[in-house]
Amino acid sequence: MSLILSVGNERRSVAGAIFAVDYDGTVADTNAAKTRWIRTNIGREVFPWQCSRTDCVPLIGEEAYERMGNCVYELDSTLNAAEVPGAAAALEALAKVGKVYVISARLPRRLEYARQWLARRSLLSFTEAVMTSHGSSKIELCRAVGANILIDDDLRHLVDVRLSGLTGVWLQHGRTDFADGPSDVACCSSWDEVKRRLLPPG
Q: Are 147 and 98 in a shared domain?
């Protein structure tokens, strides 16, 4: 089926419907655990949408980010994460019009924790596979599965998406100002906005 995605003032036709959807911070709200870790261990307040690697490393440093990841991405913290509001309904809606792959930059063993999280919420039935880009890139993973739309909360994964034949959706839940956002990706602050911009009416 042909979908239309509005990016800036442009309405872009998207041939087919194969979605690659990031896990951490996009489907599962692991950013909430990151904000708690930063508050407790660094003594700094950050917004959840500032917790992607691209946004967070400049705030707390690479070493602290790695320490945080070694806590947040482990089993207990992963399974205790809430969903990003609207994520479950969005996965179901996307699956009705195409194929959905949940992707992550997690280490393979930590990807299994994400798969368990999805299974506990009966979301695996909406996905073709749960995959890691570790050792490669999300754009390469999109190519491998034939995805034409990448939805992610970390802008580094969306760099050069158009050159790769992909349409990028930058979803940072709760963010209200995208003034510095790139013009070649769709900037969204909620899953409801993603669905309005991506899915056909009704």
A: yes
For the record, the structure tokens of 199 come out as: 């899915």
The answer to whether residues 87 and 170 belong to one domain is yes
> In terms of residue numbers, what domain contains 165?
2-29+83-198
Q: Say what the pLDDT of residue 16 is.
A: 59
Residues in the chain: 202
Whether this prediction's pTM lies above 0.85 is answered by: yes
Q: Residue with structure tokens 């482990």?
A: 74
* pLDDT tens sequence across 156-173: 999 877 767 788 999 999
Domain shared by 66 and 162, yes or no: no
- 96 vs 91, which has greater pLDDT? 91
Q: How far apart are CA 42 and CA 92, in angstroms?
A: 37
Q: Quick one: 25 and 74 in the same domain? A: no
171 close to 194: Cβ distance less than 8 angstroms:
yes
List the helix and strand counts (H, then E) for the chain.
8, 8
Q: Is the same domain home to 121 and 175? A: yes
Beta bridge partners of 168: 150, 185
